[in-house]
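As a warm-up, study this chain.
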Amino acid sequence: MNLQQPAPLIPPVHPDVQMKPLPFYDVLDVLIKPSSLGASTAQRYHQEKYFIFALTPQQVREVCISRDFLPGGRRDYMVQIQLRFCLSETSCPQEDNYPNSLCIKVNGKLFPLPGYAPPPKNGVEQKRPGRPLNITSLVRLSSAVPNQISVTWAPEIGKTYSMSVYLVRQLTSPLLLQRLRMKGIRNPDHSRALIKEKLTADPDSEIATTSLRVSLMCPLGKMRLTVPCRAVTCSHLQCFDAALYLQMNEKKPSWICPVCDKKAAYESLIIDGLFLEILNDCSDVDEIKFQEDGTWCPMRPKKESVKVPSQSIPKIETSAPLRQSSVVPHSTEPSSTKKADVIDLTLESSSSDDDDEEDTDPPLKKRCVYISKNEEMHAKGVLTYQPSTVRMPNVQGLDPSYLTSTLADYAVPFHPSTLASIPTDMQSLDLFSLIQADPQRIAVQCY
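Now compare it with the structure written out below.
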């Protein structure tokens, strides 16, 4: 009896595969619906398949209008042509998943895959994390010329992949936050019922929880919550800030709850109404405590309630005389500071006599400054106030009346003269005899 071998199963050209929706993209049109990347018996190691699509005039117009020029000559589009890969599974919406050794060419030009593949582990090449691919820059934005996509991959036993192309509009995190607010706010009574359920005593447990402390700080940015939210799939009461959570997933989409590290998709996020009431009622508290009946109370730090004791006031009064006494010795004993300046700590002294000699030497050196000049000037009968920069011309005998009137009106720049303040009973003194004792030293300043 001849038994015929069953023919290999050929995957359908367009399987009934649904892609998981992306929060930051709105699908405008489907350019290529999910198409199977079927394995061919002729090509054993690498498979290659071609896909063709064309744009309508309306689609070309929408893409061109959304174009934005970035620094460096780069272009960015808010309306994009998006390429996605996934497993050919029809049981549930599929996430992005790349085949092994994937290579993509759009209109004959190689498209670089985003990011770097993780390093090989145990000699096996690891797969890249799946993400949607924006191929707008390589697409011909014309309704008259079609576009061709070439896909090359390495087949896997027991796995089949699908490829699809969409026309999408990229969204921003503020727009998603606005849509989250439009969904509504969770009723505060729902959160209170959850609190009562958590704090209900379990008869089988020996430990009973009577209160629950919750922080009002976001675990992502360590800042106070502004839009408290959490996923309905999470069992904890702790919330995180919706605005910061959306901003982080806009840069690197992971959609992981920062509290319990479980999946927290955008569709499952809700804004907690009870936490909104708490944030509005107390603006100076970072932590609260829930009671068994669902009520809450703020947890204030102990250091804020500490008052200044009255005993500290007389301490300030008693310290005032000490402060004054500490200043007086500094002015009355200036020699103590001078001793510290001349002591050489590198030398070892054997007796106190050597220290006294070191203390008395510096004042003797300071007394020798300018003594010879002053004694020489006083010996010749010159006036004691004599600037060093004044010239000394030779002047013959002068009329006493002329000298008296001139000296009375004389004033040295920057140094006020003291001759104008001479008493009237001393103005009759004969200064001419003193000046003529040495006519070579008469000082008349010339400017």
